[in-house]
Design a protein that fits this description.
The protein has 484 residues and is an alpha/beta fold. It folds into 2 domains: 74-167; 176-483, 3-Layer(aba) Sandwich (Rossmann fold), CATH 3.40.50. The chain is built from 19 helices and 18 strands. The protein has helices at 9-15, 25-29, 38-48, 57-70, 77-85, 128-133, 175-182, 187-197, 209-216, 220-223, 241-246, 260-263, 274-277, 294-307, 355-358, 386-395, 401-409, 418-435, 443-468, and strands at residues 20-22, 90-99, 113-116, 121-126, 142-152, 158-167, 229-233, 250-258, 265-266, 271-272, 280-291, 309-310, 318-319, 323-329, 363-366, 382-384, 410-412, 481-483. Strand 9 and strand 10 form a beta hairpin. Helix 17 (401-409) crosses helix 18. It starts with 8 loop residues before the first helix and ends with a strand. This is BREX system Lon protease-like protein BrxL. InterPro entries: BrxL-like, BrxL_N. Residues 14-150 form the BREX system Lon protease-like BrxL N-terminal domain.
Length: 484
C-alpha cells in the first residue's frame, strides 16, 4: 500500500547522525525487561554497543555484565550497603532524587536527603556540590551513574553517602537546528520518522494514516503545557508504554488509590505532589481509580485544570505547567466501536461525569481507532534516540509561534465556547510542533493534518457535554471549523 516510499534509514542517519539509533537495538538488548526505561537504555547502548541490527553475542555479554553490575534489583539493598560499609566505592545506574525536609522548629539547618527509589534507600547523605551542579535532582530527580561510599556523622553513626553523580541528560536542545532538519524530509518521511522514534513500525499495515495521527495525539501533552487529555481504548493498545519510557519528566501512576497529598501537596512531609513536580502526569487504568475523598480532590483538580494552579490549606499557591493524561479501558462492540458511543465515560468513576470537570479536558483520544499492539509493530528502522526525542518534544512547549499560526489560520464557523476554541487551537498547535516544526506548510496541510484531528479530539468532549448537560445545548451539537 505505501511501499512506494520506503522508510529512509540513510537519510535519518545522515541528518541526525549522533541523535539517531537503530530501533532494533533496544528490544534485542532486553534492557526494558529489567526495568530500564528506553531513554536511559538507548543512551547506554549507544555508549557500550553502538551499531546496527540485533546485538551480537559479544555485545550481549557487555550489556549483561553492565546490567549485573550497575542495575540493582530491589533485594540488592543489603548487599550493596554491606559492600559500601566494607569501604568499597559502589557505582550503579538508577534514578536519584533529593529532598530538603521541612523546617522543624530547631536552629539546625536541614540537611538535604538523597533517595534511590529502586533500592528503597531514603535518607542518604549527598555532597552539596552535586546539588549545586544539578538542581534538577531536587523533587523530580535525574537518572545517572551514582557513586556511593559511606560517611560517619557526629554521633559516630554510619550512613550511605552519594559522592559522585553523572547524569544522563542530553544537553539543551537546539530547536532551530531541529526545524532545519525537518526541511530535509517530505511529510511522509518525517511522519514515519516521528512514528519510529516512538518505538512503532511505520510500515506495519495496521497503521493507516488515520491511526498514525491518533498515535501522535499521545505526544500533545508533551509538546503543549497544561494540555489535559483522556485516551479511551480497549485493553492492549500500548497506551502507557510510550509514557513510561520517554523521559524522566513524565510520570505514570497505575490504577488503585490516589490521594490528594500524592497529586497536589503533602502537608506532612512538605513534598510537592505529582502535578507540581513533573511535566506530564499520566494516570493509567482510570476505570479502576479510587480517590480517598473525591470531594477533596475534585475542587482543587478543577481549579488546576482551569488555570494551572492549586493550593493546599496553609501553603502558598503552586503553579505548574504539568499536563494531565487519563488512560482508561472501554468496551467495544462487534464493529470495534465504543459500546456506549453517546456516553463514552459511562464506565468511568462517577466523578468524571461532572461536566465542569470534563469541559476542562482538551479532548478524548479515540484509542479504538488505534490497532491493538502486536510485537511485529515494534520499530526496526533508524529513529531518533528516545532521550533526544523526549527532550525535543518537551522543549517545544515554550515556543509560541505554533499557537499564533493556529490562531491566525483557524476559522470557527459554528458558535463555540471559549474552552472549545482554546482546546482546538492548542491541539492544532501541538500537531504543528510534531509534524511541521519548521512551520513550512500549506493551509491544506494544516487543515488535514492538524486542524481536523484537533477538532475531532474536542468534538469527543463536546458531544459528551451536549448529551449530559442542557447548559451546552446553547451550542450546536457539531463543532464546525475551517482554515482561513
Amino acid at each position: 500500500m505505501h511501499h512506494n516510499n520506503p522508510y529512509q534509514n540513510d537519510l535519518v542517519n545522515q541528518i541526525f547522525s549522533d541523535y539517531s539509533i537503530d530501533k532494533t537495538r533496544l528490544p534485542s538488548s532486553g534492557l526494558n525487561k529489567v526495568g530500564v526505561p528506553s531513554f536511559v537504555a538507548e543512551w547506554i547502548l549507544d555508549k557500550i554497543a553502538p551499531g546496527r541490527g540485533d546485538l551480537s553475542n559479544a555485545e550481549h555479554d557487555r550489556v549483561n555484565s553492565l546490567v549485573m553490575k550497575a542495575f540493582p534489583r530491589k533485594d540488592d539493598k543489603e548487599r550493596i550497603k554491606y559492600k559500601v560499609y566494607q569501604g568499597e566505592e559502589y557505582q550503579l545506574i538508577a534514578k536519584l532524587k533529593v529532598r530538603i525536609p521541612l523546617e522543624k522548629a530547631t536552629d539546625e539547618i536541614q540537611k538535604p536527603l538523597a533517595s534511590i527509589p529502586i533500592l528503597n534507600l531514603r535518607e542518604c547523605d549527598i555532597d552539596s556540590d552535586i546539588l549545586e551542579k544539578y538542581p534538577l535532582l531536587l523533587g523530580r530527580g535525574l537518572w545517572g551513574k551514582i557513586t556511593l561510599n559511606y560517611s560517619v556523622n557526629e554521633q559516630g553513626k554510619y550512613n550511605i553517602n552519594i559522592c559522585n553523580f553523572d547524569p544522563f541528560q542530553s544537553s539543551e536542545v537546539d530547536l532551530r537546528y531541529y526545524a532545519r532538519c525537518r526541511d530535509e524530509f517530505t511529510f511522509e518521511e518525517w511522519r514515519d520518522l516521528m512514528f519510529c522514534s516512538m518505538g512503532l513500525n511505520p510500515e506495519d499495515s495496521g497503521y493507516n494514516n488515520d491511526a498514525k495521527i491518533w498515535v501522535f495525539s499521545r505526544l500533545l501533552p508533551l509538546v503543549e503545557s497544561n494540555y489535559h487529555v483522556m485516551e479511551l481504548a480497549p485493553k492492549g493498545t500500548g497506551k502507557s508504554f510510550f509514557y513510561e519510557n520517554v523521559n524522566s519528566k513524565v510520570m505514570v501512576v497505575s490504577g488503585g488509590k490516589i490521594t490528594a497529598p500524592r497529586l497536589f501537596f503533602n502537608g506532612r512531609t512538605g513534598e510537592i505532589g505529582l502535578l507540581g513536580t513533573y511535566d506530564v502526569t499520566v494516570l493509567d487504568e482510570v476505570q479502576s481509580l479510587t480517590f480517598d475523598n473525591p470531594d477533596e480532590m475534585i475542587g482543587p483538580l478543577k481549579t488546576y485544570l482551569a488555570n494551572g494552579r492549586y493550593n493546599r490549606a496553609g501553603f502558598a499557591d503552586i503553579s505548574s505547567d504539568c499536563s494531565l493524561v487519563l488512560l482508561a479501558n472501554i468496551e467495544l462492540d462487534a464493529y470495534q466501536r465504543p459500546k456506549n458511543e453517546d456516553n463514552l465515560i459511562k464506565n468511568l468513576p462517577k466523578f468524571f461525569s461532572e461536566t465542569a470537570l470534563l469541559d476542562r479536558f482538551a479532548g478524548i483520544i479515540p484509542g479504538w481507532k488505534i490497532p491493538k499492539f502486536q510485537s511485529k509493530m515494534t520499530a526496526y528502522q533508524i529513529g531518533l534516540k528516545t532521550d533526544f526525542f523526549g527532550d525535543v518534544l518537551l522543549s517545544l512547549r515554550k515556543d509560541n509561534r505554533f499557537y499564533h499560526y493556529a490562531k491566525s489560520h483557524t476559522n470557527f464557523i459554528s458558535k463555540v465556547s471559549i474552552r472549545d476554541e482554546n482546546a482546538i487551537l492548542k491541539s492544532a498547535s501541538g500537531f504543528l510542533k510534531i509534524l511541521y516544526p519548521s512551520l513550512n506548510l500549506t493551509t491544506e496541510e494544516y487543515l488535514l493534518n492538524c486542524l481536523k484531528p484537533a477538532r475531532e479530539l474536542r468534538q469527543n468532549i463536546h458531544g459528551l457535554l451536549y448529551n449530559l448537560d442542557d447548559e451546552f445545548k446553547q451550542y450546536e451539537r457539531d463543532i464546525i471549523v475551517d482554515v482561513m
